[in-house]
Amino acid sequence: MLSTTVIAGFTLGLFGSLHCVGMCGPLALALPAPFTSRNRQITASVFYNTGRVVTYSLLGLLFGIIGKGFSMVGFQQLFSIITGSLMLVLTVLYFGFHKNYLPAWFQQFTWKIQSFIGSALQKNYGAFWVGMANALLPCGMVYAAIAGALVSSNILSSVFFMASFGTATIPAMLTLMIFGSGFSAHLRIKLRKLTPYVMILVAAILILRGLNLGIPYVSPYAEEGVKTESIQCH
Description:
Elements: H1 2-23, H2 25-30, H3 38-72, H4 76-97, H5 104-123, H6 127-134, H7 140-150, H8 155-178, H9 185-192, H10 195-211, H11 221-233
């Protein structure tokens, strides 16, 4: 159900917004700084966050298509378990042992995005494009959201999941960008430390979904429907 998908994505986004404040703080505070007018600062902040949500939605479309492919061949449960397990392992390695296993091509892609953002800030490009680009930078919470989009019941659910995730991060980010003085660097560092715990929780939920235990809001809706139809056939 889309309502369940929206709630799940929005809930993850609320937790993720704490991470956003911690990780994206410097960029978020720098973007509205050149504008002296408060109205222009607010406008830039809104366009920036809208750009982020658009990119998240497009990522939901992309990974929804990929996830649908696994669903069509009957591997979605196994794929959910593998995705959750991989996320769990990578989270422990990165946050526990400071091991980064990003491939070289992805690091090069990241450098290009960072270069674009730096140039955009210097040349005063539109805040919307900066927001779209920023959403492509490596982020543990975005990875967690993408994992959820991969195992959603259909492509539309994946898009709504990512859109809801991004929308839920807007209040905290707008507050940071407009009233930035209320978020000290020390507070942002503390918020950043919550990331691995949220990622481990998401990984555990993905594994549980793959196990198909019939737990409400955890066991996939489509799989429950398959079980019901099987019982009726017999």
